[in-house]
Each structure stands twice: as C-alpha cells, then as structure tokens.
Amino acid sequence: MVLSLRASHVILTFFLLGLMTLSGMAEDMDCLREFPALYSLQTGETGENRDQRAARTQALIGIHLHMTPEDVGKALSAVLKNVRQKSDGVAKVDHARARFVEGVYEQALTLALEAGDQAHRAASRRPESIIEALQLAAFAALELSRFEDAVKYLSVALGETSADRDLKLWTQLQSATARAYGGMKMDKDQEQTMRLIYTEHERIRGERDPETIKHHSAYAGLLYQNGRDADAERETRDVLKVTEIVHGPMHEQTQILRKNLARVLEVNGRAAEGEALRRKVVVVQMETLGEGAAGTLRSREQLVKNLFEQKKFGEAESEALILVKSSSKVNGPDSAITLAARISAALAAFEQGHHEQALGELEALQTDCVRVFGEEHVDSLRVRHAMGTCLNALKRYEHAEAILADVFEIRKRILPAEDLNTLETQHQWSIALLRQNKLKSALVEIRIVANSYKRLLKEGDPRLAAIDNSASEFMQLEAGRKILIEEQAAPVEAKARQLGENHVDVLNMRAALAGYLSGIGEAKASHAEYEKVLAGCLQTLGKKHLGTVDVMQKVAAGQQALGLYAEAEKNYRQVLALRSALVKPGDVSLQETRYQLGVCLGQGGKLKESQELVESSYMAVKDRKDVNPAYVAQMKGTLDQLRQLRVPVPLELNVPGTLQQPVSMSGADKAAPPLIGAPGAAGAGVPSADPASLIPSGTIQKPVEYKP
Fold first, then answer.
1. What does the DSSP 8-state code read for residue 67?
2. What one-character-per-residue DSSP string does 404-462 give?
3. Does 374 score more than 60 pLDDT?
C-alpha cells in the first residue's frame, strides 16, 4: 500500500522528534555523568558551600559540553526527574550519580558499591563498569570525609587500568587519591601522587603538552601549600620556562605562572624579585587585556601588596591611585576593588607620615564603605581601625579611643578568638589609653595582646616589637611602675598577714617580689626585700641551709648592683665558704659564686684576684653539658675583658641570672615551695607582670627541653 504524502510527512515528523528527544536525553545523561568528577576534583577544596560548588560545576560542565550553565541546570533537573520516575529501568550507577548530584552522599556511596559489586559478579566482566562505580563511591566518600575508604576504592579501581591504557581516567583516579591523602594530612603521599601524575603525562605526552604543564603547575602549587618553598620555587620556574616556550611570553597562562612564582619568592623573603615579576605581568596584561580588565586590576592590586611588604610606600601609593582610576572607569567608584585601592592609597600616605592627608581620605572612605558594605563589613572595620591609628599618630587620643574601642568590640564579636586584626585594634586602643594616663586599663590590654602575640606570631614579627615598645613605654612612667610594684607586692603582704612574715610560703613570695623589682630596675627596693627574706631565712631555716645561702648571695648581688663592692665582697666570701661546706665539690653553684665574687672584685678594682676567680670558674664549666652555653659565653667575654685591663678600673659588667638549682626552704618538707632561683621568676601567689616587666632571666643552668 502506498502512503499518502500527508501520512509520510507525519511519520517523518514523529521520527525526527524521536531523534531530538533521544539526543536531548543523551545530553542530559552526559551532564549527569560529568557532574561527580568535576564537583569533587575541581571544587572540592575551594572552601565554597554546596550551592556555590554546584553552580561552578554546572559552568565547568557547560564548557566541556558546549552548553550554557543554565541549560546544564535544566538538563540535570530533567535527568533527575527521569531517574525518579523510571527508577526500575535506570542503571544502579545512574541512581548513585543522581543521589550524588542531590547531595545525598551516603545513599550515593551505597548504590555505587552495589553497582560495582554487580559489575564484578557479571558473567562477562567489564572492568570499565567496575572502575566507574568505584570512582563514584570514592567521590561520595570524599564528600563524607571518609578519606581512608576513598583511598581503598580508588586503589582497586587503579588496579583495573593504567596511565598507558586510559590516561584521562587514570589521572582522575590519581587526583582523587591525592585529595584523599590531603584530607588525611599525609603530605608526602599527596606530593608523591601529584608528582606521579605530572611525570606520567610528561612520559606519555611530553613536557610541552598543555595537560603536562597543568599538572606540573598543580604539583608546584601543592609544594608551596605544604611549605616546601625552595622546591616550589624550583618546580614553578621549570613549568614557567616550558609555558613560555609553548604559549609565549604574552599568554595569560604565562602570567598566572609568573604570579605564582612571585608569591613563592615573596614567602621566601625575596619580595624585590617578586616585584619585578608582578610589574612584568601588569605591563603584559595592560597590553593584552586592557587597563581595566579584571585580571589586570587584580595583578596591580597584588603589586601594591608587594610594595607594602617592601615598605615602598611612595610607590605603593602611586600604584594604588592608578588602580583607583582604572577600576573606577570600569567598575564604578563603589566597587570592592576600587574602595580597597582607595584604602591602600590612604594607608600608604599614613606610612609616609602624611597623617592628616590619610585621615581625611579615611574619613571619606568610612562614609562610602558603610554605605556600600555596611558598618560591620571587613573593609569598613579596616578603615575605622586605620582612622584610630591615624588619630593616635596625631595625638588625638580621646577620639582614637572611642573609635578603636568600638571597632574592637565589633571585631571581638564577629571574628574568631585571638584574630590578629582584633588584636591589632586592641593594641592601638591600649596606646590611646596609655597616652591619656588610663594606665590600669592600658596595662590589661597590653598584657592580653602581648601574651596572644607570643603564642601566635613568629620571632621577628614587627607586631611583637610594637607591643614590646608599648610595654616599655608603660614601664618608663613612674605611675606605671608604681602600679606594677603595688600589684606584685599586694599578695605578698596579704600572705604575710595570714601566715606570718617568716613562713616559708611568704619567704618564697617575697624572694620572687625582690627578683621582680630587680628586673624592672628598682635596685634599692629589691635589695631591701632580699634583706627581709634573709632575716626570715636565718630565723626559720638557719645559716647553714642552702635556701638561706641562696638568699645571702642575692643580697650580695644587690649590694654589688648598688656599687657597695666591699659589702658585696664580704657576703660573697661568706656564701662561698658556706657553699663549700654544704655541696659537693663539682656542684655548679660553687662556680657561680666564684664567678660573681670575681666580677665583684673586678668592679671594685681588684683585678688580679678577679681574673683568677673568673678564669677558674670559666674553666670549670666550659666543657660541661649541663650548663647554659650562652651564660658560659658571657663568662668567657668577662675573662677576655679582664685580661685586656692593665690598670685597676671599675668594670662595667652585668651578671644576670644564677647558676644555682632552686633550693627548698624546708629540708624535711619535700612539698614545700622552692626558693625562686632566677631573678624575676614568679613565686607562689605572685602574678606575672609580663610583658610590662623587663626581667633578666639568664642562667648558667642548661634550659630544660620539654617534649610533647
């Protein structure tokens, strides 16, 4: 039978519609299959939330499949609906993928493992199906932070393939393994895996292949992330060299690697080399992308940060102003990058001493930042903190105090405990209090900041020096010193009223107070306290107790500090005689007493005997392993100084610390608190004044190393 033309047309139309439907379904399934790997491997360590990661994954799928992100989203919605409606007719692995896309990772993991088991038990075993299921199970395990399970699944999957057989699939499996190692903090294993990925690409596809370059760059980035700065620099230089050959010096990938290398150099303290690279990037991007392109603006912003790090504040201000102009043209005056550039320009002006100019710029910025971002936004708070700092520099302390106190309260409320930005505001606030003679309040804040900085910052950080300067400023004020002394003395007097002046606890506390007073330069007051302690020791412990002898030596040291060399010499000789009778001949405390007696004699002009005693004490301890080498070096320096003198003149010597082990004031009572051996150590019940006390802590005893 011959069909009519109309009937033929209808059949053809339905056939074409069927093909279009099948094509659309295939496209939907492609989106579903692409999602898990891109979601886990490309967005897994960005710190974004699930919705943000899903949106980025859709954009990545769109690039792969030549679709818009919106179309990818529609395709995923359609395929998820189809899987739900046709649940019995959908492969188990696709059910697992659907659960993964929906964020139901536990179900996705279970279904993926069931699919893998089915593929393994099938009559005609298909390794690709096993790999597909185990890879999906690993991605779900990664999202559940079950990293050991992920490594287990991936190891089995890797046994079913190789780089030579399917490089793309093998790379996905190895990349997921590296991420799992990272989750377990197995840095070496993660580094080895990332290195293997790039070296296999180099073997199979060559060092100049774009994929090889990409993986080599990722390996270099991981080394940087793990603190392997020298290795990161070497690898980044290698990959930059190849990238320049493959893509040329003007390519955007070349600029990315130049910036990566600049960052590594900056971390290694070579900011000047980093600056040269960053300037080169800005020049190239201005030519290739344009002055107002987002990449150019970010690169100039990074250059400004580099210049700040080098303290090139004039150049930083110039670059920041160029950034303000360029960004304003493209993004407008209220964009985040424009306002951030204005902040940098104002801070650069401040660092150059242009405080009035900086304050004016910051006041205008405060209005704009609060209007655009809100009062508690990070940039709004940054501007107000800088205003307070400017006002401190301009000696407008009352106004500074009000602003900084407010910023501090907000930062303390919205930021993590001991956040460095909060601490910097707290420090500036303490300066405003200090300069208005609100000393007790200032001391509280100085101590909190100093103690936090000591825990959080590395030695040499300028913020440590800044808080030490504030502590020293407090110490230089007579009223400040009075506060500290009263603070230390009050618990001692209270304990004396409770237990009696000669009780062992009181003697320990008063000895600590005396050491504290010595440490802050109150020599007379310290000596007076030690004499009180000595009187109590003589009455309670007797003259031949090592605790009494220790205090007697401190009294001698106090006389020595006051220039009473004859009295000090007499006491040192008495201490030496008592020690010789009470301790073994090799006891290090004997050498300390000889040394201090020798120094005292030298200061009093008796150079011959001084040199003999210092030399004998130095020779006795110089090769001992149980003493502090820094103190021994001080002894050697004193001896060298004595040897150079030909006429008896007073020596200018400082002898901090002690060689003695702390001695209990109660020979019978083992639980009695020990006499504080080193000046400045806090005794029982005496709060530390750290950091506003500059207490010498040198000792010839070798420091104890505490191990976790």
1. -
2. HHHHHHHHHHHS-TT-HHHHHHHHHHHHHHHHTT-HHHHHHHHHHHHHHHHHHS-TT-H
3. yes
Half-sphere exposure of 587 (CA within 13 A, CB side): 16
Rounded CA gap, 352 and 315, in Å?
A: 11
Bridge partners (DSSP) of residue 658 are 699
- Per-residue pLDDT tens digits for 480-500: 999 999 999 999 999 999 999
CA distances from 419 to 361, 388, 452 (A): 26, 18, 9
- Contact between 215 and 178 under an 8 Å Cβ cutoff? The reply is no
Q: In this structure, is the dihedral angle defined by the CA atoms of residues 561, 565, 568 and 572, taken in order, positive or negative?
A: positive
- State yes or no: pLDDT of 368 exceeds 80: yes
Q: Which residue, among 121, 124, 185, 120, has the nearest Cα to 153 in the 3D structure?
A: 120
pLDDT tens figures, 124-142: 878 888 899 899 999 999 9
Cα(255)–Cα(679) distance, rounded to whole angstroms?
A: 58
| Measured distance CA(369)–CA(349) in Å, rounded | 19
469 vs 434: CA distance, rounded Å:
12
Confidence of residue 634 (pLDDT cuts 50, 70, 90): confident
Q: What is the largest CA-CA distance in the chain?
A: 138
Query: 231: which 2 tokens?
Result: 């290795």
pLDDT number for residue 73 = 87
C-alpha 265/C-alpha 267 separation (Å) is 5
What's the burial of 182, exposed, middle or buried (CB within 10 Å: 0-12/13-18/19+)?
buried
Decide if 154 contacts 132 (C-beta within 8 A): no
CA 658, CA 589: separation in Å to the nearest integer?
8
pTM: 0.70
| DSSP classification of residue 690 | T
Tell me if residue 652 falls in helix, strand or coil.
coil
With bands split at pLDDT 50, 70 and 90, how would you rate the model's confidence at 528? Answer: very high
587: number of Cβ within 10 Å = 17
**pLDDT exceeds cutoff 80 at 54:** yes
Residue 403: what are its φ and ψ, rounded to 5°? Answer: -65, -50
Q: Do 177 and 139 touch, CB atoms closer than 8 A?
A: no
Q: Is pLDDT above 70 for 12?
A: no
Query: What pLDDT shows up at residue 669?
Result: 35
Q: What is the pLDDT of residues 537-577, one digit of tens each?
A: 999 999 999 999 999 999 999 999 999 999 999 999 999 99
In sequence order, the β-bridge partners of residue 699 are 658
Alpha helices in 622-668 (DSSP H): 629-644
Residue with tokens 């609100």: 438
